[in-house]
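Problem: given the chain below (234 residues), write out its structure.
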Amino acid sequence: MPMSARAKLGFALALLLLLAANTARALEPITVTLEFQPDLADGRYSYDICARCHLPEAWGNDDGTYPQLAGQHVNVLMKQLLDIRSGRRSNPAMQPFVQQRTIGGYQDLANVVAYISTLPMNPRHAKGPWPPGSPEHAEGEAVYATYCQSCHGAGGEGDNTRAYPRLQGQHYSYMARQARLARDNLRRVDASMSALFTAVSATDFDRALNYISHLPLPAADVAPGVDWRNPDFQ
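Solution.
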């Protein structure tokens, strides 16, 4: 028996709703956990292309153009590389260098982030303008304790398992620049971080970043001096 116009319309609507539901399910985030045994020798080889900007020591620049990568957690580094590769994080300067045809597959990424994480940190990274003892530093400490410490740790040590960045030792100017990008919706961040920009004023947030920049670094994670040079590149 031929379908009536009303039946055809009802069937079409039902089909559209079904397709929409299936599309919505397909767009839900999918988490896949992979494990790799890193090869540090291969990671050092792959780091050649990174060292052109991040420097052989992975210390970045005081002006915040490039972050300090040395000593950062492997899961944090991996997440950022994959976010840039997928387009989740917009970084035109990095985009060409994280593609598979440039640096390789997941194993190659695991190798290079493992290598970077073993490098000692800059013992004299760029700090904020308000030193310990100043009112601004104290205000930043209070903001950090209230809003940041639960994720990034009391000493800014971060959390590798949860991929929360290690903040201690990071250049103040780099953190301030990234905060401005996130506040202006020019860098996508997690919901918990995004909520901070509503809860905390730009001034208070900047003072918290200043406090972070003055956090002490564990002696075991720091290079013996500012003149230290990565022996792998000599």
